[in-house]
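question for whoever is on the cluster today: can someone run the full assembly for these? two chains, 1088 residues total. i dont have access anymore since they changed the login thing
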Amino acid sequence: MAKDERFDVVIIGGGPNGMASAAYLAKSGLSVCVLEERTESGGACETQEPIPGVRIYPHAMLMYASAAPGFEQLELHKFGFRMEWDPVSPLEMNQGGLACRDGWRQITETDQIGWAKIGGMLGQPPFTRELMRAAFYCPPHPPEVEVTDENTPYMQVYKKHQPDIWTPELRDMTMFDLMDEHLETEHFKTAMAFAAWASGAAGHWEGVAIPAALCVQLLTLPSMGRTSIPRGGLHGYFHAILRAAVHHGATLRTSCPVEEILVEDGRAVGVRLRDTAVTGGRTIHANKAVIAACDVHQAFLDMVGPRHLDPAVIQKLKDISLKNQTLYVSTFHTKTPIRFNETFATNAHHTKYVGPHRQPAAGVFPCDSRELYYACVADVDGHKAQPRVPVEDVMWFQTPSQAFDPTDCQGEYPRGYISSAFEMAVTSPDYHLEGEDALLGYKSDMDRYMRDAYSQVYDGLDDDNVIHHWSATGREVEFRNTGLIGGTWCGSRHDEDQLWTNRPIPELSRYRSPIEGLYHAHQTSGHPGGLCLMAIPYNLMHILIEDGVADPGDWWYASPYYMPQEGKIPANRR
Amino acid sequence: MSGTQKYDAVVIGAGPNGLIASAYLAKAGNKVLLLERRHETGGGLNTDEYHGFRLNLHATYHMMAEQMPAYLDLGLPDLGVRYLQPPVGAAFPFADGRSMIFTGDPAETATSIETFSPDDARCYVRMWEEFQPILDQYLIPMTYELPEPALDQMVEFEKTPVGSRLAAISEYSFIEMVDDYGFKDPRVRMALLSLPAMWGLHLDEPLGFLFPLYLCRMLNASLVKGGSHRLSSAIYRSFLQDGGRVMDMSEAQKIVFDGDRAVAVEVDGGERFEADAVISTLNPEQTFGQLIAEEDLPEDVALATQNWEWEERTLFGLHLGIHGKVGYRAEDPRVDDALVVLCGLETEDELHAHLARVDAGQETECDWLHITVPSRFDATMAPPGHQLIRAEAVVHYDQPWETEAKAFGDSAIARLQKFAEVGDIVLRRECTPRDIEQKLTTMKRGSFKHGAYSTLQMGYLRPNDLCSHCATPIPGLFVGGASVYPGGMVLGGPGYLAARVVGEELGRPIPERG
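^ ran it for u. tokens below:
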């Protein structure tokens, strides 16, 4: 076995956050080693090929990150990154109305204008990108700064560009409050609130109106108003980041689980690998920093250990709530294409996109009223077990990302047709009454429930027509990917207690830790959480510059809303 | 990126050979672009994870492993490649509970053969006394040297006694080989002939030099810890570290010519990549038939391409996730320690009858299985408390796999359960020849070797006498996939040799072997 080694920076975890952090730091000229526990890197950015020629995405599937500065700063286009856009605009789809239990219901111009206004589309010029960057791509303010309406980045943007959105109550609102003020129809509001819930920030949570709305808008508005995915799925996005990192000299080691973060005199000096690690020495020293790009519990409760941390901090970390939904993802392989049933086959705007080679674009079904939404939320939050909402009332959504990737075999596979992906929110496995493995035992019941629900809208999901029903429970998600604690896709809720200066706890909110030289960069641990945004690595860079760890070249630019910490090196000095 | 971009080399296809060729050339200082049609690099080095089971859907056995020059030259140990060699190479359990064990040690193997036939055990020892120097002095080193025309090679062989013996046996068929060494017992003969037959080779084809190679390779084969894909991802990272560029989801559409010279590759979407050297690792029909316009193709290459032969025999794969244990019923516990367990056939006659049924398309129920339990040697291949079984059967391509896959899989499971106790099946995947071809389009008709292994398509004639030195009659165009000498099976030979030839051509040669 090789002797102990030394790098400037050691990063624990080879998911999208760890790898993008590595790319930023390697491009800044530092020697970087990324240690991944699993046999392959990529985290949730995974593509499976269950039958040849058909790709499905069991985890991350849609692109939320289009506003990320990382695309320019890391020059991902040079590393094979390409986007594919849905040929059908959501605006166009919306003209066909939204799916309610009794069929399509139209939305109004007020809905469209209100929604576009919240998303910064109606400014002169539109300020969508600036808004997204303010909300997600800026490190939380330093502890000495009190967060106010005046210095909250998205508040500043609205005040400047769209003052009629800005109100003194905006930061306390729920997304429903916000929509009640600016939108008109109940079904549009319900659909958007549900999409926000599925993206980590629920429509009824106080204090996250804008982050919740923008989570949904990230999917469409920054990328030409259309849903988009990278060619080859989020796997393609991740590999562009990986290639950038390795190109700039980062070392990636897979099958290298970390046992312990080494702390000497209150400073993180490296990591010790588990005996099962395949490559390299058992101890890897870090000259400048250790970055935990893994689950916050793993990092601070397991790898650091209690003797280096204040018991109060440990307790607060243990208390981070995982109580949120997790998504149950289904992909169907059918003998004949699925089609809208009688109730829904009436609408030309939708049916023209349905057929052997086409599915409707992202949609939420059924979205009659917020009562349905609340029933689903209550079911997931309360029953802690199998879904109990009747199948005709349960809300779900469909994101047929493959439908517009020309390199996929969507609809043309000779042995049938692929319909993906159908998603329903279910209880996080950690909260299952019968234990976290119980979901696996109920899988066939769950699959049946899902198909019954989806059959409220589509014909063709009957046993005779379905060749394969590929599904992934939250437990399977967690099993494969330790960073998705509780099976929750965003690691934890994007609620008021878990965003901005509160994520994961105020003491750790600027990606620093109580241990000098130890930083964190994971969706569970830092603002703005999940969705593979490439935001945490960018935000972390500000802090590493402040601490003198990183000194990037001219390609670097800081967030215009960033506030340097007193006594530190400002990251926006250029 | 738009417009035209210039590289020293553009490599088509990111399977093991494309990756190796690219990584070597980048290490030597060349600017290299690697194009891949799929979302993932690795080609047949494919490992898919389902519910914690890591399925090697294609390549599993690594037959040259650490002998492959790329292993050390590209620093693969430091990049996380670990080979695991099970204590037993191959085991043959019989219906009566007895079994025959083959390991890398001829004496140990002879002890096992002795319980069936003391005479054959002596033949086996004598055979290896001849094979070992043939392998060490000729066959293994030749794997990574450019081939010579048959006549020149024979002259070379005749210079030493070991070489003379190699020259003599090279013209034998596999059957003549076991005759020549005096094997008599029908079970021993079945076992020996199975080792090449399990790869679809024809036992009456005069490819005698392949016999010691296949015995040696199969009895010393390894698994890659964590799955075969880890080998490819290590080479991928080696390539990236040396400045290589990878474009996945980029299917080559056309090789662009300037006069008679290949100068660029165009991918779907119209992007064009210029290069001093274009290396195709695809099969000859794809390289010369699909990527090159008819008017650009020299007549002799066109003719050679038309004559390229595919195989009728291919493989059916069955992957089972098991809750609980897997244990063979054989009396000898070493059967459980075997990398591959071949079961279902008792005698040489049954082997010939089986292959005849396969060739006639009459093998509708699985008679003969080659089974590996990767999780026995590598716990990372299955979740705790579970095992992963990979079983393969030699089958004919032209069977109605779309409708028959499940029934054939059922019969394979029944066959398996005759020889092994198997816990609850919690995951099941069939991989038919049609699936192979659909996923990895270079493997037409499920031919994982990119074309038949026949006397007219091996050695200096692979893919033909114009192209077996990686250069082609087309200036600027090179070949380096499994259809090129020394062939497929993840030997890493064609990619290595292509890098050597192209490195010379570009003036930045890859390092000499140390």
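summary bc i know u wont read the tokens: Residues 4-46+64-81+227-309+449-506 of chain B form a domain with the FAD/NAD(P)-binding domain fold (CATH 3.50.50.60). The mean pLDDT of chain B is 95.
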